[in-house]
Design a protein that fits this description.
Length: 182
């Protein structure tokens, strides 16, 4: 943790001591802590307090994501899945929430439910991609991107490509132009 992050946290905690029930300060501390590995397990109470106000602003998605991640870290996978279900409804434009919900359901031992969640999310993305390509008069294009995988394990990227090729050959996804972002 950098000295500027330490100072920022000290400033936030000073503000928190002045108003421990405030929405804004609990939101700031919860989001801040949820982004720093060392403090993620301490973010939960602040995230819960901020979400208890039921305010849907720009940061609601960060609060929901942080709280679900907190529950995942503590092994409360059912609670994480519930939070991600709320996040999917509140922020349908963020497709990652559906996949994270599927992961939490799988971790809680609900493989069938998880599979259904993943299938629905993939189908939604495919419909959106088809509609977008048709509206532009172009072909459907699949972008295969490493995201953070390239920084961690090359084998994960290879597995992603392997799964994509197999799914395409088996007809699970439409044949399309594929672009690998390297």
């Amino acid at each position: 943790m950098s000295s500027s992050q330490k100072q920022a946290l000290e400033d936030l905690l000073r503000e928190f001591r002045a108003d421990p029930d405030g929405y804004e300060i609990n939101k700031k501390i919860g989001v801040f802590m949820s982004r720093i590995r060392k403090y993620q397990l301490h973010a939960g109470p602040h995230l819960i307090k901020a979400l208890s106000y039921k305010i849907k602003d720009h940061d609601a998605k960060h609060l929901l994501d942080g709280l679900a991640h907190f529950y995942n870290l503590t092994g409360s996978f059912d609670a994480a899945a519930m939070i991600y279900e709320t996040a999917v409804q509140a922020c349908p434009e963020i497709s990652d929430f559906a996949f994270r919900r599927g992961d939490a359901s799988f971790r809680s031992g609900k493989a069938g439910e998880s599979s259904d969640i993943f299938r629905a999310a993939i189908d939604r993305l495919n419909r959106s991609a088809r509609a977008n390509s048709q509206s532009k008069g172009g072909p459907l294009v699949h972008l295969l991107e490493p995201r953070q995988v390239i920084c961690r394990f090359f084998g994960e990227l290879a597995a992603k490509i392997d799964l994509y090729v197999k799914a395409r050959e088996l007809g699970y996804i439409d044949s399309a132009r594929a672009i690998l972002i390297a």
